[in-house]
Known about the structure:
The complex is a heterodimer of chains A (386) and B (215).
Chain A: H1 2-14, H2 28-38, H3 57-87, H4 93-126, H5 134-144, H6 151-163, H7 179-190, H8 192-195, H9 214-219, H10 228-233, H11 245-258, H12 263-283, H13 294-299, H14 303-310, H15 321-341, H16 349-385
Helix pairs in contact in A: 3-4, 3-5, 3-11, 4-5, 4-6, 5-7, 6-7, 7-16, 11-14, 12-14, 12-15, 15-16
Chain B: H1 11-18, H2 34-39, H3 44-68, H4 77-99, H5 101-107, H6 109-112, H7 118-126, H8 133-163, E1 165-166, E2 169-170, H9 174-178, H10 190-207
Antiparallel strand pairs in B: 1-2
Helix pairs in contact in B: 1-8, 3-4, 3-5, 3-7, 3-8, 4-5, 4-7, 8-10
Amino acid sequence: MLEMRFLRDFIDKIKPNFVKGGKLHWLHSTFDAFETLLFVPNKVTLKGSHIRDSIDSKRNMGIVLLALIPALLFGMWNVGVQHFLSHGVEATFWQEFFYGFWRVLPIVIVVYATGFIIEFVAAQLRGHEVHEGILVTGLLIPLLCPPTVPLWMVAVATAFAVIIGKEVFGGTGMNVWNPALIARAFLFFAYPGQMSGDGVWIRDKGDALTGATPLAEIQAGSLDIMSAQHMFVGLMPGSIGETSAIAILLGAAILLFTGVASFRIMFSVILGGLAMGGLLNLIGGENVWFQVPAYYHLLMGGFLFGAVFMATDPVTASQTGTGKWFYGFLIGVIAVLIRVFNPAYPEGMMLAILLMNTFAPLIDHYVINANKKRRLKRAQIVAEQT
Amino acid sequence: MENKKQPLFSPANMKLLSKPLGRDNPITVQVLGVCSALAVTVQLQPAFVMAVSVIAVLAVSNLLVSLLRTTIPPRIRMIVQLMIVAFLVIIVDQILLAFAFEISRQLSIFVGLIITNCIVMGRLEAFAMTNKPWQSFLDGIGNATGYGVILLIVAFFRELLGSGTLWGFQVIPQAFYDAGYVNNGLFILPPMALILVGVMIWIHRLKNNELIEKN
C-alpha cells in the first residue's frame, strides 16, 4: 500500500499542471490516461439517479489481460519447445521457456509501443481522452502472430489496425471490426509468405520437424495428425497464443467467472463449430476434411482462441441476448465451412469472425424488431379482450 | 446567362475546370466511378492510360451531347447518350489496341466499361443536357481530370508499396529487400484501393470542413 500512496500523492502533486490554465494543459489527455489507468476515477454524477459500477472499462480490460496471461505464458514456453524439438535437442523447461520468452517479448513490446504512440497522438490531436482499447488489442495481436513474424511487419499491422480499423470510426467502442483481427488480416493478406506455410510456425526451425500445423497437414490431404489429447495440451506449431486449449480454457474460466465475456457467444461459437463439423461428417465427401471428427475443429488452429477472446469482444459482437446466439453460432459454422470448402485458406476463424462482426448490427436490428412485433401483438390481443 | 457573351476563358468557365479537382471531385466528394478506380490502379501506367481515355471520352461526349441537347427527344435521351458514349469508347478501345496493345491487355474489359462509368453518364445528364457546348467540353475535361488525378494518386501508392516499382521501374532498392523488406501484397488487392480512396476522402474533408455533413 505504501507505494500506492506514494503514486497517488505524486499524481495529485503534478495534477495542477494539467488542468485548464496549467502550463502542461495541452498534455491533459495523456495525463488523464495514466491517472485513470492507475486509479479508478472518483468522479460522481451530480444530477439524477445513476447506478455506477466500480468496474469501469479500464478495469474490465484488466481482467481480459489477466485471462490472456495463461495463453501468453504457454505460448512462450511452446515457442521454446518447438524450437528445441525441431533441432532434436533436449532442453530443460526453463531453457525452453526463456528461449520463447525472449522471442515473444519483443513482439509484445513493439505492438504496445506502436499502438500507444498512435493512440496518444490521436488523443492529443483530437483533444479527447486516450482510449484504453489498445490495452487488450496490444496483447491479442502478438498472440495471433506466428513466432517468426518480423517485428516491422507487426508494427505496420498494428498501426493499420489502430488507424484504419479503429480511429477512423471514432476510436474505441466505435469500431466495426475487432482491431486485433484487422491487424492479423492485414498481415495475412499483405505478407502471406511470412504468415502462412510450413516455415513460419517454429522459430529458427531445425530439420527434425516439418513445422506443419495440424490444419496444414489436413489441407495437404493427410488425416494422420497428432492426437486430440496432444492438441488439447497444445505443444504443437501454431500462432503464439492459439495452440493450447488448456491455457485458453483457463482464460475462458476467468472471463466467465467475472462475467466480462458473454457465455452465450462462447458456447454458441463452439456449438456452431460442432454442429457444422458433425453435419459434414454425416454427409461425407472425397475431401479428407469431411472425415475430421467435429471436436477436432475446436482443438485445431485458432478456433478456441477466437471463440473465447475474439468473438466475445463486446464492441464488435451482437448486443442483444438472442442476437449473441445467432452471431456466435454462425461464426462457428462459417469457420468450419471455410476450413473445409476453401482450398486457399486452411484457417477460417479470422474470416468468420470478421464477417460476423460486419453482420452483428443487422442481427441486432432483426432481433429488436422481432421483439417489437411480439410486444405489439401482445398489446393488440389485450386490447381486443378488453 | 444564355444570351450573355462570355470570353472563352472567363473565370466562370475556368471554375468548371478547377472545381472538380478540389471541392467537387467526382471520386472523393461525389463518390462516383469508384469501381474502375479499384480495378485499374494496381500500377501507374494503366491508371494513366485509363485517366487519359476517360478524359477523351467524357470531354467529347459532353461536347456532342451538348450540341444535340435541343434536338434529343427527352424520353429517349438516355439511349442517345449511351450511343454517343459507346461510339467514343469503341474508338478509344481501337486506338489502344492499335498503339498500346500491352496496356490494352492489362486494362482488359475496363476500357469498354468506361461506358458504365457513373461519372460519364452523370455529367451528361447533369451538365451537358442543360449547358452550352464549350462549357460542357470544359466540364468534361475538368471532371475526368479530377477522376484521373485520384486514379494516379491511388495507383502511385499501390504500385510503390505493392510492387516496389513506379511506372514499371524498380524504385525500392534491392538493399531494402535484402534487409528483410517485403512488398505489401494487400496493396495489390482491390480492398486496399477502397481503403486508400477512403483515406483520401478523410484527408479531403479535413481540409474542407464544409464538406462534412451535419447530421
